[in-house]
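Late entry, written up from scratch paper. The run itself happened at the end of the previous shift, but nothing got recorded in the book at the time, so transcribing now.
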Amino acid sequence: GYGADVLRIDPPGWEEPGTVPEVVLGKRCARLDLKSAEGLATLERLLGGADVLIHGYRADALARLGLDAERRRQLNPTLVDVSLDAYGWSGPWQARRGFDSLVQMSTGIAEAGMRAKGADRPVPLPCQALDHATGYLMAAAAIRGLTERLATGAGGSARASLARSAQLLITHGGMLEGGPALAPESEADWSTAIEETSWGPARRVKPPMWIEGTPESWDYPASALGSSDAAWRDAAR
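Output as recorded:
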């Protein structure tokens, strides 16, 4: 929304019908088979021209493809490399698959929700709070990395995990007991623009933040996975 050329890469056949329309606004979406020599070579070329890489694989996934942190740094010494996994980067669960709702279960958040609701089964938060909170932390890390690169000329890296975000919420959020109720939805929550997505016309919830004097401008509506080529918009890069 503030000028970045964002290219999302997914494997062939992968779909997330419940979440993709929400998270691809302004992005171009391509597919690569990283288990093929051609797909891996294409990704390496893209990394060579990237400013920022944000990825959410398990801790050892890219390494098993020959793209560990050292290789990524060789391809692009100035890359800002921001990575996410579910359960952290050390310990017995570091390579375990996971997503927001599972991490809420395994860290006790859903158990606290059960107590707060007086229910007889786990109650997760009413939104994917770990995904969203961790996303903001990763965005901040990317911006910080770019700021430091302007000063030093060097790339940088940051790592986040859903489990760490859950721990921060548990430590500082008082869990769920006695918290305020969710505010009811109102017309003021919605953007006035109609977005022509791959799934039909839609209205979006307004963004929760803004930059003074810099209006948001989305070059692309939400589009289906695989709808773009795996190339940077500016071929000169």
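The chain has a mean pLDDT of 91.
(Scratch paper discarded after transcription.)
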